[in-house]
């Protein structure tokens, strides 16, 4: 029997990376999403389980944002850390001052980032 090459780009040709992304990335994630959709309708919105789920989801989003701000990659890394943190602060202030409007916070934070990027 000949050896089967199981390297990332060898098994079935040029389309193999796309199949790998589908099987290893999309499918496991969507299974949990579908299970969440199926069970969410039967769950009380104020239950401890729903509160825990909301807290975990919020903390994961906060962790991703913190990673992007404190340890950026690509062109965001060229903007100084103080400007990135300042953009978060300005966005949060705009969020509070504009009646908890997320769009206002995003626009202000982006304006601060673009202003800092233009000064570099």
Could you please describe the fold and organization of this structure?
The protein has a domain at 73-120. It is flat. The longest helix has 25 residues, at 16-40. The mean pLDDT is 87. It contains four helices and no strands. Helix 3 (81-97) runs antiparallel to helix 4 (102-119). The chain has helices at 16-40, 48-70, 81-97, 102-119. By secondary structure, it is mostly helical.
The helix fraction, in percent, is: 55-70%
The stretches of 5 or more residues where confidence is low (pLDDT under 50) are none
Distance between termini?
60 Å
Count of strand segments = 0
Assign the structural class, choosing from mainly alpha, mainly beta, alpha/beta, alpha+beta, or little secondary structure. mainly alpha
Question: Biggest β-sheet, characterized?
Answer: none
- Alpha carbon gyration radius: 21 Å
Indicate the mean pLDDT. Answer: 87
Percent range for β-strand residues:
under 5%
Helix-strand pattern, N to C? Answer: HHHH
Characterize the overall form.
Answer: flat
Number of helices: 4
Keywords: Membrane, Transmembrane, Transmembrane helix
Transmembrane segments: 15-32, 52-71, 77-97
Organism: Aurantimonas endophytica
InterPro entries: Brnchd-chn_aa_trnsp_AzlD
């Amino acid at each position: 029997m000949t050896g089967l090459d199981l390297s990332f780009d060898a098994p079935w040709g040029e389309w193999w990376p796309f199949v790998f992304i589908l099987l290893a990335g999309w499918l496991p994630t969507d299974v949990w999403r579908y299970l969440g959709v199926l069970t969410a309708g039967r769950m009380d919105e104020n239950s401890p389980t729903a509160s825990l789920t909301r807290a975990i989801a919020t903390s994961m989003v906060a962790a991703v944002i913190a990673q992007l701000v404190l340890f950026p990659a690509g062109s965001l890394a060229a903007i100084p850390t103080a400007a990135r943190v300042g953009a978060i602060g300005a966005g949060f202030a705009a969020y509070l001052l504009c009646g908890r409007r997320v769009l206002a916070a995003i626009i202000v934070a982006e304006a601060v980032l673009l202003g800092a990027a233009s000064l570099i």
